[in-house]
Amino acid sequence: MNKFTKFYFLGIGGIGMSAIARYYKIHGFEVAGYDRASTTLTKTLESEGIEISYDDKDSDIPPKFLDKNKTLVILTPAIPQDNPQLVFFREKGFNIMKRAEVLGYITRQSKGVCIAGTHGKTTTSTITAHLFRQSQVDCNAFLGGISNNYNTNLLLSKESNFVVIEADEYDRSFHHLTPYMAVITSADADHLDIYKTHQAVKESFEYFASLVRSGGTLIVRKGLDIHPTLQKGVKLYSYSMDEGGDFHAANIRSMPGEIRFDFVTPTETIADVRLGVPVRINVENSVAAMALAWLSGVTSEELRTGLSSFSGVYRRFNIVCQTAETIYIDDYAHHPSELHAGITSIREMYLERKLTGIFQPHLYSRTKDFADEFARVLSTLDELILLDIYPARELPIEGVNPELILNKMTLDKKQYCPKSELISLLEKRDDLEVLVTFGAGDIDALVPEIRKVIKQKKINTGEPLEEPAVSI
Questions:
Q1: Partner of 160 for a Cys bridge, out of 135, 138, 282, 440, CB 3.0 to 4.6 A?
Q2: Does the structure show a pLDDT above 70 at 223?
Q3: Is the pLDDT reported for residue 264 higher than 80?
Q4: Which one-letter DSSP state was computed for residue 408?
Q5: Are 195 and 232 in contact (CB under 8 A)?
Q6: Are 284 and 261 in contact (CB under 8 A)?
Q7: From CA 105, how far away is CA 361, in angstroms rounded?
Q8: Element (H or E) spanning 259, and its range?
Q9: Beta-strand pair 318-322/327-331
Q10: Nearest-angstrom CA–CA distance, 390 and 400
Q11: pTM above 0.85, yes or no
């Protein structure tokens, strides 16, 4: 690694890839990359001085990155093996590393605080980084989402040797890490295109747990059916929201716009902690993050101050806008478990209000594997508008389409809508009380247009638009 002065990223627009690209750019290296589409994130990278090509022809690789002795190529698993730039680099004998291998190198040089789980890891890792950052402990962080507090997915510290990393289970990427501390939030069946069975998913998390270095710490969500073999001297703790364990929440109080609880540790209880992002599922995420911070020397008062000032993660329960009649929320949920947590939390916040969901399924394989689960959880909405499947890295699978979910649903008010027709559909509606967009694809590109529709309706009726006080 030390011999390279230039870094070229294939898939630079990915949330994890962009953080590493920024890391090397900030440290004075030359950085460029390829992605298939221009996005808000790639435009931000370009504004930071990183050159990006949107055509995968090898002729689009900048000449300064054609020296294989100086250039390291970093690859995301989402890049197809026949990508012309990847083929070029491979045939010319360039050193090529996966994103996870680079993060693995970084964790071996520092105290890696790694948060893993099929859901919950982005919010938990972002809370963890914020708690460290707002204390005397401090940290570096590579996050899987944009922190609302810092408006970035990368945090750097000149003083701290801690580095918070979101540990990605896709393609077993997290097996490259060497954690000093780790959390496992969940181990649900997911990415079955890679793992095939739920048992293989659980075994993969068990192997990740075995990588926690000797003398380190592992914190596991209470009740998870995994049984790892740990290295000598690794301390094992359990956590939960309110189901007991070494770390848990007690005396949870929910009130309009606010949640408070007591944080219970093995030796003390920190009373009356205020959750800065008042969504019930974030109590559990906060307990895991506070446990990591508490064990790392963050004081009780720093925990209290840090959690209350946490303002969330982009596309994780973000209130986009709200009026007297309509509340519009955008969320990244794309797995049945995440959808269940999101819908349940929103129901608790807005009792007696009609909940309309717009869902963009992510991946043909995930849609096929979890069609029954998607149908069951989406049927708990009052209304569903279902968009086309976002393919990401996949080719279509015969027989896998939105109707596969719709036909299994018990909800009466449901419909399929092409993404291109969604805005015109919403323009005709005047009965939207709580509207939520769900999905991990490109549905976020529609958020400004949906907000504009809601805003325009209120202008036409003479009602004021209320900007949200907090992103949840």
A1: 138
A2: yes
A3: yes
A4: T
A5: no
A6: no
A7: 34
A8: strand 258-264
A9: antiparallel
A10: 12
A11: no
